[in-house]
Design goal:
Helix content is 35%, strand content 18%. By secondary structure, it is an alpha+beta fold. The strands form six sheets. Strands 1, 4, 5, 6, 8, 9, 10, 11 and 12 form a nine-stranded mixed sheet that branches. A six-stranded antiparallel sheet has the order 14-15-17-19-18-16, with helices on both faces. It has a two-stranded antiparallel sheet with strand order 2-3.
């Protein structure tokens, strides 16, 4: 432990985070429910800081009120700046706060685990007036560092060596070979000797970097502390803030749920999200050696993209209490985006429904953690192998049928058992698959996205209005209701160690059991032969009768119309994703979906939907 004073710079306007910073200053942005400035102050307490001062300007009273409401073990004061003074001006403005010892200055908008004690001790062990903590961060690499870890300049242009001074001045010669300079990024953490204050003008705006440049010009040395094997996020932008929150939630999950963490680095890999707008990551741990460097053969905290990324609802929910830690090396983190205030959002549904299904024994990934304010969910990693891939590898139709029979058994359990105790507040769109949903999300979607958007036919939805009403009514006119997944297809069924798991269940609601079966059997990703579809349909009806009374004819009739409505939804979705979202892979599956719809409309007879049948058969 060391004894020092510290300053947190917190006067910034936060313009890059508007409109969020209109009512909340940036240092009070929460990370897993805790304001960032509180995290920083607690770290300073632990590091042995004896006194903290915070400069304020934007929404200063909000920061004042927060600090006064806490019970810190050390004095924490604020100093208001009527006019923003810059980093150097802020340090000078609290000159009366400093004593004759080196002091620590930390930006109030960074989230990091850089060891502050190690940094301060490093400063005490050299004779130079400043220690600047720097690291390799490509986006901000604007600090020039020479082969002796001395700061030689700032900016995009390589610095010229400072003029050599004679030995009588007692200052070092910093004429390092310019070829040995490399660029690193300033972390916002530095330790200063009191003599630095003499390089900062009184009562005016000053960037501390300007003072450092003048010191270098006069021959003084600014020492670089090179931070390694750490995480660091600047929350000054929405991207940075969300990356910090992702980092915190992943680490908290590994700490409380998974048996592997400690000081390990985290490796982030972006995953393909298929048709979803959500962002998916696989997060794994990288063990470190005793010297703090990632173990040989591992990667540092850099994702493959090349940039760092770091009913009743709680701000953060970690499902580990009272349970043994799990032995897993990776988890999946899903970023749903910031939720809307008040109403149930997609992330709420994902977490609540996932936990409900897992509690019911339905095979879904375990939900490890959910941070509602950020819309982040951490779940079990079940790999990347889905049913579509298994079907493609199958040697014959009977092997395919065996896979589907096993999935159907689980689907029936989800539909019947999953409906028991299902709280309608879990749902984020509608609690039921009903007439209104069919007409809006399937029929109209088909007309607007596929017929008009994709085929450019310019057809009025009302042209088929009466026929869509018939399709909706006949899909619902039966007693076979249960829990509906709503997007039950081969890419939403993972296969691991011979077991099947259902994913993407956030759209679940109560509805007709035949719908999910239709989604599975007419799935264009697999395009099952019609004969196999009928065989599996009969298998489903037989197995369902073990749970509830089933009239086979009635069920099959409902199935027919559920399949048509699902087919309309598929074509609307594939058209929208390929044309609007420019995810051209989905275009591959439009022809089999069209063929399927043609066959199903012919199957119900020309008289049921003559106008719709006519336009579809002409495609």
């Amino acid at each position: 432990m060391v004894i020092m004073k510290a300053m947190i710079l917190a006067a910034g306007l936060g313009t890059r985070l508007l409109p969020l910073t209109e009512k909340r200053p940036k240092p009070l942005f929460p990370i897993l429910g805790r304001p960032l400035i509180d995290i920083l102050i607690r770290r300073l307490e632990t590091a042995g800081c004896e006194d903290v001062i915070i400069n304020t300007h934007h929404l200063a009273h909000v920061i004042d009120e927060f600090v006064k409401a806490q019970a810190y073990s050390i004095p924490v004061a604020t100093r208001y700046e009527p006019t923003v003074l810059g980093t150097g001006g802020a340090i000078k403005n609290v000159e009366d706060f400093w004593d004759d010892k080196p002091f620590l200055v930390v930006n109030g908008d960074i989230f990091t685990n850089i060891d502050l004690v190690k940094v301060y001790r490093f400063h005490l062990n050299h004779k130079h007036p400043v220690t600047l903590v720097v690291h390799d961060y490509a986006q901000f690499n604007h600090v020039w560092v020479d082969s002796s870890d001395h700061i030689s300049g700032f900016g995009h242009t390589a610095p010229c060596p400072p003029p050599a001074l004679d030995s009588a001045h007692g200052t070092p010669d910093l004429t390092a070979d310019a070829a040995n300079n490399r660029q690193l990024a300033f972390t916002g953490i530095h330790v200063l000797d009191p003599q630095v204050l003499s390089f900062i003008p009184n009562g005016t705006f000053c960037n501390i970097i300007d003072a450092y440049c003048e010191m270098i010009h006069q021959g003084l040395t600014i020492k670089g502390f090179i931070a390694r094997n750490h995480y660091w996020h600047d929350i000054g932008t929405m991207a940075g803030y969300r990356a910090a929150t992702r980092e915190a939630l992943a680490r908290e999950t590994f700490r409380t749920v998974i048996s592997k963490v400690g000081s390990d680095s985290l490796v982030w890999s972006n995953l393909k999200g298929d048709g979803s707008d959500r962002t998916w990551y696989r997060v794994s741990t990288t063990p470190t050696e005793d010297n703090g460097i990632p173990a040989k053969g591992t990667c540092p905290l850099v994702p493959r993209s090349g940039r760092r990324v770091g009913g009743r609802r709680e701000a953060v929910s970690i499902t580990s209490s009272g349970k043994p830690l799990l032995d897993q090396s990776s988890v999946i983190l899903v970023d749903h985006g910031l939720p809307s205030e008040g109403s149930t959002c997609e992330a709420d549904a994902f977490a609540a429904i996932g936990r409900h299904l897992h509690h019911k024994g339905i095979p879904v990934p375990r939900i490890f953690a959910y941070d509602r304010p950020s819309g982040l969910v951490v779940l079990e990693d079940l790999g990347d192998l889905h049913l579509q891939s298994f079907v493609r590898r199958a040697v014959d139709t009977e092997e395919v049928a065996n896979h589907y029979r096993a999935v159907i058994d689980l689907l029936i359990a989800m539909g019947v058992e999953g409906a028991k105790g299902f709280d309608l507040s879990y749902t984020y769109q509608t609690p039921y698959y009903d007439r209104e949903l069919i007409l809006k999300k399937e029929s109209r979607y088909f007309v607007e996205a596929f017929l008009n958007g994709y085929l450019r036919l310019k057809i009025d939805f009302e042209t088929f209005g009466d026929e869509f009403e018939v399709l909706a009514q006949r899909a619902l006119d039966h007693p076979y209701t249960g829990l509906l997944h709503r997007d039950f297809q081969s890419r939403n069924i993972l296969v691991k160690d011979g077991n099947y798991y259902f994913i993407d269940f956030q759209g679940a609601r109560l509805g007709p059991l035949p719908y999910d079966l239709a989604s599975l059997l007419i799935d264009p990703y697999v395009n099952l032969p019609r004969a196999l579809q009928l065989k599996l349909l009969n298998y489903y009806v037989k197995r369902l009768s073990d749970f509830i009374a089933v009239d086979a004819g009635e069920f099959l009739d409902a199935y027919t119309y559920c399949a048509i409505n699902r087919n309309l939804q598929i074509l609307g979705a594939f058209a929208f994703l390929s044309r609007v979202k420019e995810k051209k892979d989905f275009e591959t599956y439009i022809p089999p979906a069209v063929s399927s719809l043609k066959a199903r409309l012919r199957g119900i007879g020309q008289s049921v939907c003559p106008k719709l049948n006519g336009i579809i058969q002409s495609i």
